[in-house]
Design a protein that fits this description.
Elements lengths: L1 E6 L9 H5 L4 E4 L2 E4 L3 E3 L2 H9 L5 E5 L2 E4 L3
Antiparallel strand pairs: 1-4, 1-5, 2-3, 5-6
């Protein structure tokens, strides 16, 4: 299975917490962070990044279901 990872540029504050957790999944690119790939294999670090994002800008989906950030 693969997950779809997206970062909302309207919310992102480029804190870098996502890239610190998973540098192979996220990068800070100027004023925003972005996922290096839109689709990834299931990876707990993507959920961790979504959970700790101070701007709640990261969404991880499994199909139509939002799996991250976790409640």
């Amino acid at each position: 299975m693969t997950w779809h990872v997206e970062i909302d540029p309207q919310q992102c504050i480029a804190s870098g917490s996502c890239a610190a957790i998973a540098a192979d999944l996220f990068v800070v690119d100027g004023a925003y962070a972005r996922p290096l790939k839109g689709r990834i294999e299931e990876d707990e670090r993507a959920l961790d990044a979504a959970d700790v994002c101070p701007a709640a800008a990261i969404t991880v989906r499994d199909g139509a279901e939002v799996v991250g950030p976790r409640p």
